[in-house]
Structures are given as C-alpha cells and as structure tokens.
Amino acid sequence: MTRIANARRHALLDLDGTLIDPKAGIIGSVRYALDKLGAPVPEIHELTWCIGPPLRQSFAKLLASEASVEQAIALYRENYRNGAMYEAAVYDGVSRMLDDLHAAGLRLLIVTSKPKVFAEPIARHFGFMRHVEAVHGPGLDGTHDDKTELLAAVLEREKIAGRQAVMIGDRKFDCLAANANGLPLLGALWGYGTAEELTEAGAAELCAAPAEVAPRVRRLLV
Is 16 a catalytic residue? Predict the structure, then answer.
C-alpha cells in the first residue's frame, strides 16, 4: 500500500455506527431508564434514532422535564456500565479498514459523542487500540456534548490543521462538526445515517463499505 508522505495526517473516527453497531447496548439502556422512571417505553425499532446524537438530546425528546432527563441519564449509565456498554458488534471490514489506514501512515483517533469513560474501554475491548492512538469524547458532566465543540477541542489539543485530517462518521452530527471545523467528512453508509442525510449535511464522499475508506482518505489527503 502506498504510504502517505506526511506522517502527521489524521483519520478521525466516529465510534457508534462507524466502528461498532451499538444498538443492543444503547437502546437497551434507554429502555431500562425509561422503564425505571415509569415513562412510556417505545419498541426497539422506534429508538434507533437515539444512536448518534448526545444522550441528553435523546432523552429531552422522550421526557417532559429537565429533571427527568438527568434522572434518565443516571439510570442509563447505571445499566450501561454494568455491562451493556459491551453489547455491541464490530462491523464487518472495520478491522481491515483500521489496518489499511494505519499502513497508509495515518494517525488514528476516535472522536465520539459517547463519554470518554465509556468509549475508551470499549475501544480497548474490541481491539481498536492496536492502531488508535487516542480516544476523545465528552465528559460525564456534559462538557463538549456538542460534537462541533468536541472536534474543535480535539483539533486544538492534538495540534491538527484542517488540511491534515479527514473525519469518518455515519450521521449528520459528524458531518456538521467536520464541516464547521474545516474538515471533509467521509460518510459511513453501513451505519445509521442515510445517503440523503449525509449528503444534505455536506459529506465530501460516501462509502458503502469499510473497504472503500482508505482509498478515499488517501485521495482527499495526498
């Protein structure tokens, strides 16, 4: 594989819906929290939209009061840290995608809306840290819940210029954050976003499978 000349080029990777399918753990924890609060509990297929946006945004749409939202978040995290966080599956082709990106000379970072205290052990559990150098996510207190703000903080902390990186993600939140920070977004169509959603949000290109990512990244960054 051709190695990218600038070894400081970066691939910034979303986690949920891009590297792993987290449906069982996330939706199971949302339903657990709603049930504990005595709130209506939608069917599993009615909650897939909860995968991607910050947790507070999701519960704000499901519950009537801010106090209930904070209670739901605490209950969600209780269930999640008790094992649901690992109820996920690595998408077919992702391990090879990471191998290819690393072999091409890219520095790999995970940038996710999932709090870092969950995202980092998940990344280790599924073996991503063999190539991924760091995991960035919001704090449990809501710091950098907004992905645009999170990405800006990551770029500053890691000293990355926009021309040195590409973001890979499956939802409009990834795309809007990337564009706001001067990065191109490769849309991961194997995740939870649609081609229409990603195109309307301004994705640079769309990838139907993980195998398409490394060649597209090389073309965008060389």
Answer: no
pLDDT value for 4: 42
Measured between alpha carbons, how far is 7 from 10 in angstroms, rounded to an integer?
8
**Active-site residue, selected from the candidate residues 14, 146, 170, 174:** 14
DSSP output for 83-137: TGGG--EEPTTHHHHHHHHHHTTPEEEEE-SS-HHHHHHHHHHTTGGGTEEEEE-
- Asked if the 10-21+89-221 domain carries CATH number 3.30.70.20, the reply is no
The helix (H) or strand (E) run that includes residue 10 is: strand 10-13
The two structure tokens encoding residue 182? 């001067």
Q: Which tens digits make up the pLDDT trace of 42-67? A: 999 999 999 988 899 999 999 988 88
Spell out the domain ranges in the chain.
Answer: 10-21+89-221, 23-86
Q: Which fold has domain 23-86?
A: DNA polymerase; domain 1 (1.10.150)
Start-end of H helices in the chain = 23-37, 55-62, 66-81, 94-103, 116-125, 147-158, 172-180, 195-201, 213-221
